[in-house]
Write a structure and sequence with these properties.
Largest sheet: none
Helix content: over 70%
Number of helices: 26
Structural class: mainly alpha
Distance between the termini: 37 Å
Strand content: under 5%
Radius of gyration: 28 Å
């Protein structure tokens, strides 16, 4: 590619002996290809520099803005990626594809701006989000749910994940209409294709993302019950009469303010939707009634039993997406919290058959072994009932070693493999510190030495490593400073790190 670029720059030909001159756009796309290769090699600065050359050459090339935004995002500056993509979007406002590249805005936690962009291509008969729901726009709802989850707006996030689940329920019901249609139209090839697709409906990637998001939020709510019970009425029985009177007055005042705010928001929403509906079509046709969401913040979802909801979705994933290791990891997380020892052990065994070298699996095996050890020490009934099965399967998961030897063995394997994935290095380093199987300095070295040149290095895994180092105490604090310098050399545009 470098040879092509050199020849095109000097003589407008692919090779010195060529008779035909190439058009000027050929050089542009040669630069573009080289930038793609820079991204694959993790050379983001060089790729961005080439994109700038492309824009000097052809400032109206929309595809160049898209690739530059991708490079900026990979380099760690998501805000700059949003600005770049939005600049390219302004060049062609009729292009639905680039105008719908709003996932960057959602990943940058700019959900209001993202909705404005999506509203350019929705029917303004009401709330654009309602139109997106009616059109079953799964990718937008998933990205928005992820965005709200990062902001810890749990109720609304659950609603958006639930909207995607609802779409798949509709797909399942709509197949009955499709049967009679195919028989009438004799489209047997499409008929068999949809039957095969329906067989794997609950294992589709979009459904999996939604279900995993719901499970993770409910597990978080179970682990942090105060999050969903902040407005719970205080215990008046332990108060004096004066304190009780004061507390009830405060509670009444809070409730009154909350009700007033909710009513104002509902009224504003109705007015906005009514205005949008009236302004779109005038008097051309009778307007459909505006859909009013009675629970816009998802408060009803927050009141459900977290473990029961998580159990429901984890069972679906483990049955219909057994090829995904995340299905079994979540099945373990739910089962261990429910106290179902054998179900948790089964999930670990199934996960091992999918990918025995996954860092999440390593963490869960260690977690199970430590909890089982505690159960044996406490002589609980669960240990007596499940003992024979666990004593047969657990040694296989631990490779016939003790807990400490299992962790130390994993650390030795990583030392021999300089390209071992960074998430696995972080998991083993945390295990060394947790089990005290090795000094903290060894755990730190697992991350600092070869960590940045290993596989699966991206901004999120670097943040994961940074968090782990900070948890290692004083030695980890010093290493955290070094890690920050190393990461910023690899991702020079990275912001908000640590």
């Amino acid at each position: 590619v470098e040879g092509y670029i050199s020849c095109l720059s000097s003589s407008s030909k692919f090779a010195p002996g060529d008779e035909k001159d190439e058009p000027p756009s050929t050089l542009l796309w040669a630069w573009y290809l080289r930038a793609v290769l820079h991204r694959l090699a993790g050379e983001f600065t060089e790729g961005i520099a080439l994109m700038d050359k492309c824009l000097e050459h052809t400032p109206t090339a929309v595809d160049v803005y898209e690739l530059k935004a991708l490079l900026l995002k990979s380099a760690g500056n998501i805000r700059a990626a949003v600005e770049c993509l939005d600049k390219g979007r302004d060049l062609d406002k009729q292009d639905r594809y680039i105008n719908n590249q709003n996932k960057y805005m959602l990943q940058a936690n700019m959900e209001d701006t993202a909705l404005e962009r999506m509203a350019l291509f929705t029917r303004h008969e009401g709330n654009p989000e309602q139109n997106l729901f009616d059109m079953q726009c799964c990718w937008y709802e998933l990205e928005l749910a992820d965005c709200l989850a990062r902001k810890q707006i749990w109720g609304k996030s659950l609603k958006k994940y639930g909207a995607v689940v609802k779409h798949f329920d509709d797909f399942h019901e709509d197949q009955f209409d499709f049967h009679s249609y195919c028989v009438r139209k004799v489209t047997l090839r499409a008929y068999t294709a949809v039957l095969r697709w329906e067989d794997e409906l609950w294992g589709q990637p979009f459904y999996g993302r939604a279900a995993e998001g719901i499970i993770q939020i409910y597990l978080h709510l179970y682990d942090h019950p105060s999050v969903s019970k902040e407005e719970k009425e205080p215990d008046y029985s332990k108060m004096t009469p004066a304190e009780r009177k004061k507390a009830k007055a405060i509670a009444r005042k809070k409730k009154k303010l909350a009700d007033k705010k909710a009513a104002e928001e509902a009224e504003k929403r109705r007015e906005k939707e009514a205005a949008a509906s009236a302004g779109e079509n005038g008097n051309k046709k009778k307007k459909q009634p505006t859909v009013v969401d009675e629970d816009p913040n998802g408060e009803t979802l927050l009141k459900k039993d977290p473990l029961e909801e998580a159990k429901k979705y984890s069972a679906i994933l483990s049955k219909h997406a057994p090829h995904k290791i995340s299905s079994w990891i979540l099945q373990y997380d739910v089962s261990i919290r429910r106290g179902k020892v054998l179900m948790a052990l089964q999930a670990l065994a199934c996960a091992t058959s999918v990918d025995s070298r996954d860092h999440q699996l390593f963490t869960r095996i260690l977690d199970f072994a430590l909890k089982w050890e505690k159960l044996l020490e406490d002589n609980e009934d669960k240990a007596l009932v499940s003992g024979s099965v666990v004593s047969e399967v657990l040694p296989t998961l631990l490779k016939g070693k003790s807990i400490n030897d299992f962790v130390v063995g994993a650390a030795e394997e990583l030392k021999q493999d300089s390209h071992a994935p960074l998430p696995m290095r972080v998991a083993v380093a945390k295990a060394l510190v947790l089990t005290k199987a090795a000094p903290v300095s060894e755990a730190v070295d697992l991350i600092l030495k070869s960590g940045i040149t290993s596989r699966a290095v991206d901004v999120s895994s670097c943040r994961l490593a940074q968090t782990a180092l900070k948890e290692f105490g004083e030695e980890g604090s010093d290493a955290s400073t070094k890690w920050t310098e190393i990461v910023k050399q690899r991702f020079p545009l990275l912001q908000d790190f640590p």
